[in-house]
Each structure stands twice: as C-alpha cells, then as structure tokens.
Amino acid sequence: MRTLCSSTLIGEFCIIGFAGLVAMKDPDLSTSTVWLVSGIAMVLCLLLCGMVTRPGGVALGWALQLALIASGVFVPTMYFMGAVFAALWWASVHFGRKVDEAKARFAAQTESSTTTPDAV
After folding, report:
1. Of 41, 66, 76, 115, which has the most beta carbons under 10 Å away?
2. From residue 116, how far is each of 75, 89, 92, 102, 110 by CA, in Å?
C-alpha cells in the first residue's frame, strides 16, 4: 500500500505546485498567501509518504484529498483534478491493502512449508 499511496502523493505534490502557479495570477490572492498554503500542502504530501502505513495516515490522506477538491474555489480546474486524485487515492488504498494481504498470505504459506519437517 505504501508504494501506491506514495506515488499518488508525489503526483499531488506536483499538481499542487502547478495550481499555486495558476493561483498567483488571481489578483485577489497575495503571492505570499498562495505559496504559504501551497507550500504547506506540498510538505504535507511529502510527510504523508512516510506516514501512510501508520495509524491515521490514510485518514490524513483523505483530508488532503478533500482540501485539494476544495481548492477548486480558487482554481476551478482543481475541482476536476481533486476528484481525479481522490479516485487515485481510493484505488491506491484499496488495491494496496489487497496486495499487502496477498503478500502476507504468501509469506505465511512459505514459512509454514519451510518449517514442516519432511516425512522420511
């Protein structure tokens, strides 16, 4: 799960940076505010890469997805991009857990087959 979720978060890191560039064009927003908010979100993406398998990591990822969708208020394209990344986040969590379960089953089977003594 960690690899899939981290890949999604790195993609979001890039998208948030590009959205910050677009938001700078809005005369109602100050450049410092745009980069403060974008910078915090980008750092959160990087930190979540390491926290994804810890308790609360996936929930924080969902909060980030909601914030990304909500950023569409300032950059309308982010409604669409936020929805795309929310779907990618769901897929990463869902299929990542399935892969982790399959790996655990395989490891358990391998361990049990190597520990049982062969009949002579």
Report:
1. 41
2. 61, 40, 36, 21, 10
